What does this fold into?
Amino acid sequence: MNPRPPHHAVQFYGNKDSLFSTVAGFLSEGLVAEQPTIVIASREHGEAILARLRERFIDVELAQRCGDLVLVDAEEMLTKFMSDDMPDADLFESHVGGLIDRSLEGRPRTVVRAYGEMVDVLWQNGQPDAAIRLEMLWNKLALSRGFALLCGYSMGNFYKKAEQFQVVCDLHTHVMAADPNVAILDPKRKTKSA
It folds into this structure.
């Protein structure tokens, strides 16, 4: 059982630059604190995030060689645990839980910082139910693993889908607005300073 309260945030983005800045800030804080980090993103987004980390004076190559920064292709990871167009709980536990476990090897008291956009991939592929199921599996995994997760969703996914937008917000402990200069919202939707 994980003694830490879960941290499962979502960043809604209108433009990719704001997303990459947010993700790089989240991951660089972890790397500076000697926390392992995992990026599960599209190849394009993964490379952009690595570039932003370099701009923050993170030695990306060294972090990757040491296993402190792991980059995984989101679509490839999805193929490992999807079954009949839905995430399989046991396969998710094995592949994603296993990835977190490997990152924590020899560091039982630390937290892994992870950024993931597999849910966004599912949503953009017209599979919102699978994306919501995946968010639930992340929450279940958080009960037994030490990680802080940041998810990225394009705001375009939710055009005329306010009810589904609310469901996604409710599955996260922290909600970040599309514009990083706007507020971070808590589960009760009260504004906090960013």
Notes: The chain is about 45% helix and 20% strand. The chain has a mean pLDDT of 88. The helical segments are 16-32, 43-55, 60-65, 74-81, 89-104, 118-124, 128-142, 162-170. The beta strands are 7-13, 37-41, 69-73, 82-83, 86-87, 112-116, 147-154, 174-176, 184-185, 191-192.
